[in-house]
């Protein structure tokens, strides 16, 4: 009769919203997890900031809690380290220590991966250890593993996604109700979708970190958050939403990563996060509430879409558990997860070289020659106009212009010169247009 397998021993760093859900799921699904892995999972320690904090009915022995995270990571009886604390330091030091010691690491830390994922991947290679981070982007949606493994034999050309639930809720609310940004943000805060300080979400920092991770995997090149062009969505108005509706569009905060030639013809990648108009026929246009969705385009596989809840304790914990199962199985079989694939070393081209389209709303003087003067500025910068719509009279005169595709630098220079025309009272809004609208 065979002996039962020894437990795979886990150290959990962090026991907040996500960490506590990980503990609950480990307890509730213990029997199934043991059957899937071939050995039981055992939590041998949980690092927290404060020992005295009330943790409700969490099914765990209080003696497992410690404030010495590094000491826990270094223990000989730890096989897998699960980090759900967040932030750059001290998390980076803990995880590098674990990986160099050959311990598997599961992390949901998008900020660390986007700023210095290289340190973690290098430590994993040094320690011959697994590094999993499915929970760092899009919560429970199985997205990173398909990019990392399933599409490894294909050539991904573009990734377009809604990867922040807070901003998607706000923009969806603005679209459906006609509310302004402030009112929609207040609603998101009241419902618990927005943090007390929503800056990381509404200014695009969260989405930019995720965009860097997605681009790194999709294009086999190291991309950091600093490489990502970022523009928040606080400037999107109810008027912008109304204008988008008139065009058969909606507005989403998108992360866009694409592969292609730069201005000199060299293969490169462009990675950006910004609000954009997309046609209502686009698959991402119907993604509402706080849901996430990512649209992947590859040469052989074609178009793929991944959709689901991208945040919250339980969805994120689900992704963490999936990584725990994978890492535990690898330890039992003596195998490793796929290592980092960064062979392409593609440079990141600046936003100015990205091909995009603009929707520009101008408050203009009502007098002869206005349209000709405005069109002359576009021609000067070699930007072709797709449509022009004029509305209002006197002080309410407006021009709404949608361009054809052009380098972003040309479009930005066009807007700058338009602002200097004496016939342009103000530039009411500028939004990029994606998806063939």
TrEMBL record:
Its cofactor is a metal cation. Residues 359-432 form the ACT domain. Coiled coil: none annotated. NADP(+) binds at residues 13-20. Belongs to the homoserine dehydrogenase family. The active site is at 210 (proton donor). NADPH binds at residue 110. InterPro entries: ACT-like_dom_sf (IPR045865), ACT_dom (IPR002912), Asp/hSer_DH_NAD-bd (IPR005106), HDH (IPR016204), HDH_cat (IPR001342), HDH_CS (IPR019811), NAD(P)-bd_dom_sf (IPR036291). It comes from Paractinoplanes abujensis. NCBIfam families: PRK06349.1 (NF004976). The keyword Iron does not apply. GO terms for biological process: methionine biosynthetic process; threonine biosynthetic process. Keywords: Amino-acid biosynthesis, Metal-binding, Methionine biosynthesis, NAD, NADP, Oxidoreductase, Sodium, Threonine biosynthesis. This is Homoserine dehydrogenase. L-homoserine binds at residue 195. PANTHER family: HOMOSERINE DEHYDROGENASE. One of its GO terms (molecular function) is metal ion binding. PROSITE patterns: ACT, HOMOSER_DHGENASE. Pathway: Amino-acid biosynthesis; L-threonine biosynthesis; L-threonine from L-aspartate: step 3/5; Amino-acid biosynthesis; L-methionine biosynthesis via de novo pathway; L-homoserine from L-aspartate: step 3/3. It holds the Pfam family Homoserine_dh.
